[in-house]
Amino acid sequence: MNILIRRLIQFSIGSIGAALLNLILIPITTHYLSPTEYGKTSMFLLAQTLLIYVIYLGFDQAFTREFYEYDNKKQLLENAMLVPLLSSIVLIALMCGLASNISMVLFATAIHKNAVYLLAISVIFLIYERFILLTIRMENRGLAFSLYNILIKLTILICTVLFLILFEPVFITVVYGTIIGQILGDMILILCNLKLVTVKEFKLDKPLIQRLARFGLPIVIGTFIYSLFVIIDKIFLRYFTDFSQLGIYTAAFKIASALLILQVSFSNFWIPTAYEWYQQKKPIKYYQLVSDIVMLSISVLFLLLLLSKDWIVVVLSPEYEEAKYIFPFLCFYPLMMTVSETTNLGIVFSKKSYLNIIVSLLALIVAIGMNLWLTPVLGAIGTAIATGTAYIAFFCGRTYFSMRLWEGFSVKKHFIVIGLLYVVSLYNIFGSNSWIQYFIILLIIALILGIYHSVIGLCLTEVRKEIAIKRGEKG
């Protein structure tokens, strides 16, 4: 238990640090930019998100799957990076050739071609960043992984702030600051890990690449569909509303991303740990305990954020007041993603990654249907409800297929908690903003603590044991 807690803390440092730097950047950008300008910035973030989901071609996921089974780690890394790097040349050429069109789609003007060129160049750096950090993560070097993540976010923050101070405070200034900061951070990461990426005696392993492709390529299709699912909210807002609504929605999404502290920290710690447990044939009760702890922790944090919603206007600015009604439903993104990391292991262990395609399609259909219904009527609020509901569908799909392939465990408590969170999020939008709302939130926190009382008791017992052991050692 001590080793697991230490590992989780080490990985969490980077997630907490990166999240704090992101949170610092939010009020800075919203202070300088109106919701309309901020909305244009979000279109760039949309493009960058889409790139991140497709440029690895699933070889990053296949790399983690092979890591503990392939002896020569450097050769595995080199072969895993080969196909994404080669394919990125074609992608960069296409982006540069269509720069004017891409600029028009993103920013409603064709004059920002240079931003598209920089975004295209950043693809190479993003590939190196992803595979270097994956190697460090799979080696369980939690502290190094955390420090590098903080470094990259820090360079983005510094460059963005400098650009806003030195140049005109408009959306394109934030875009340039973000891209250049990302590239600088990745350059430092690469220089610090040259031994991983320096190619001296590269040996092409065709059977390995074929295995990586067989595992990874179905993920590519699923990931592409999932990326559409991720960006569909902003596309609907862009089409049915205006840049102002998009800016408010994006600001709310940034606030909700505070929960990503848990999501990213847990994922970085859990993936290598779950593979280790699977190799060691750990009993199913260990997986269920982790799943229950995660659901309990992140749902309580969800509700604590909801209690603090009035601070959103203070953090952003009065122009973004609508964000406090939007962000609870957007919190379902990190909530469902985090918990599903513990319930989708059947898909991972069975190597049936094609099921991710079905899951992503299910979530995409829900997202499109609800956005068509709600976004034209409610604007950013309707989009937020659609997004939160779609991520719940995503969780349900992952869990359903996983439990059919694996021994599995009961998730009834999870669904009860999800239902409670959904109801209180609806009340936050349509109910009265009075003491009643705060009473309801506190009541639901008490109910969740009661639902998971056995888990809390077990954790407290473990803590007491650890304290007794330490006292015995000192004595």
From TrEMBL:
It holds the Pfam family Polysacc_synt. Signal peptide: none annotated. It is a multi-pass membrane protein. It comes from the Bacteria. It is found in: Cell membrane. The keyword Nucleotide-binding does not apply. InterPro entries: Poly_Biosynth_Transport, Polysacc_synth. This is Polysaccharide biosynthesis protein. The lineage of its organism: Bacteria, Bacillati, Bacillota, Bacilli, Lactobacillales.
